Amino acid sequence: MNDLLSQDFYLIIRPRMLTRKFDIRDKNGNVLFEATPNLLSTELSITDNTGTVVGETAQKVLSLVPTFHLYEGDAKAGKLIGTIKKPIIKNMLSMGQKLDVESPEGKVVAKASGGMFGLGGASASYSITDGEGVLVAKVSTELTDSIMGTLGNLAKAAYSLQIIKQDAVPTLMLIELLLSIELLKVK
């Protein structure tokens, strides 16, 4: 699994069929992971090609702001690696959207900012920085022709996740952050 999480580029794809499932692919289009949301909530599981759960995102119930816990492994037995809180009022008052990921100790370890919710059908494009503000990844729905050629007519929603600075923020956390943002769009 470590080799699969050490790449510098990922495609996150939601197939056109009636599903909310996502494929996480490498730049050649090979499926590395599958993310399957729970149909009744905004929780999701990420599994590798063998069906092993490598990460889960679970929404905290009875919270003043939508809060998501990010886990390495499954939510029951896995390790908590981060928490996302969606500050609704703050985002409504600002021009762009912002989300912070906190470590289990409460320290901000990653920040997503930019047009992540693609208002009015606009493309989503945002950056992810570490807790110090250093750029670690870029996310975009604007894919190159060569990538779209690889995907063919497969995707309803496709995102590229380009890792700029390896090991600054765990790759699993970046993938879970991107998928959590996608799930927040439909809530």
Could you tell me the mean pLDDT? 75
Nearest-angstrom radius of gyration?
A: 15 Å
Low-confidence stretches: none
From the structure provided, what is the oligomeric state, counting identical versus distinct chains?
Answer: single chain
Which secondary-structure class do the elements indicate?
A: mainly beta
| Helix/strand order, N-terminal first | EEEEEEEHEEEEHEH
The structural domain count equals: 1
Largest sheet: 12 strands, antiparallel, barrel
The share of residues in extended strands comes to 35-45%
- What's the β-strand tally? 12
Task: State the helix count.
Answer: 3
Strand order of the largest sheet: 1-2-3-4-5-6-7-8-9-10-11-12
CATH fold name, please? Porin
Q: Please state the overall shape, judged from the principal axes of the Cα atoms.
A: globular
Written overview of the protein:
There is one protein chain. This protein has 187 residues and is mainly beta. It has one domain (9-185): LURP1-related (Porin). The chain contains three helices and twelve strands. It has a twelve-stranded antiparallel β-barrel. A hairpin with a 5-residue loop joins β8 (97-102) and β9.
